[in-house]
């Protein structure tokens, strides 16, 4: 086995570094390009893009750590199958949310401007008033600004 020159050793070292860096960038690109499933819905005459929380992980995470800017014309819909009472909590939220509880395509309850939890110990679940088919989370104040009312029918593109 011959001794490698300094140039060869540097090339070997940087070759591995570059290869690992390229792999990391490719994986980061794949993660960045992952998109959650979404649906388009008209709410009060405004088109919204709602992320669909259709797995236990996305339902658990919800809109945690989202800013008001990120939620301007978006939000999240939580399909509930089978219909049942649900509980929502505001852990790790950065902004107040409007919670829109839906049953058979009608808004049965709107909780306006639900504040984020101040600490884990103050984070009590918020229960739905009745069994629901879905819950929509929107930036706080959006439901009122759009004129959403209890009893309104919504055309939901999900079951």
What is the topological layout?
Elements: H1 6-33, E1 38-43, E2 46-52, H2 56-61, E3 74-84, E4 87-88, E5 97-103, E6 106-114, E7 126-127, E8 132-139, H3 142-146
- Work out the strand percent: 25-35%
* Gap from first CA to last CA: 68 Å
- Overall number of structural domains: 2
Q: Please tally the helical runs, counting DSSP H or I stretches of 4 or more residues.
A: 3
Mean pLDDT over all positions = 82
Structural class: alpha+beta
- Shape, please? elongated
| CATH topology group of the largest domain | Jelly Rolls
What is the correct CATH architecture of the largest domain?
Answer: Sandwich
Strand ordering within the main sheet? 1-2-3-8-5-6
- Give helix and strand order, one letter per element, not per position: HEEHEEEEEEH
* Total number of strands: 8
- In which range does the helix fraction lie? 10-25%
Strand count, sense and closure of the main sheet?
6 strands, mixed
What is the CATH class designation of the largest domain? Answer: Mainly Beta
Give an overview of the whole structure.
The protein is of the alpha+beta class. The protein has two domains: 1-34; 38-146, Jelly Rolls. It has helices at 6-33, 56-61, 142-146; strands at residues 38-43, 46-52, 74-84, 87-88, 97-103, 106-114, 126-127, 132-139. This is DUF192 domain-containing protein. It holds the Pfam family DUF192. The chain crosses the membrane at residues 14-34. Keywords: Membrane, Transmembrane, Transmembrane helix.
């Amino acid at each position: 086995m011959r001794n490698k020159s300094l140039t060869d050793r540097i090339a070997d070292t940087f070759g591995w570094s570059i290869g690992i860096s390229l792999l990391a960038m490719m994986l980061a690109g794949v993660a960045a390009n992952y998109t959650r499933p979404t649906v388009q819905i008209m709410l009060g005459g405004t088109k919204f893009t709602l992320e669909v929380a259709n797995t236990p992980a996305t339902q658990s995470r919800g809109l945690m750590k989202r800013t008001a800017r990120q939620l301007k014309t978006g939000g999240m819909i939580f399909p509930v199958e089978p219909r049942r009472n649900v509980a929502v909590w505001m852990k790790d939220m950065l902004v107040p949310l409007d919670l829109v509880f839906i049953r058979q395509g009608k808004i049965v309850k709107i909780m306006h401007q639900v504040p984020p939890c101040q600490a884990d110990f103050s984070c009590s679940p918020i229960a739905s008033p009745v069994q629901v088919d879905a819950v929509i989370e929107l930036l706080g104040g959006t439901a009122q600004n759009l004129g959403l009312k209890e009893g309104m029918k919504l055309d939901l593109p999900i079951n």
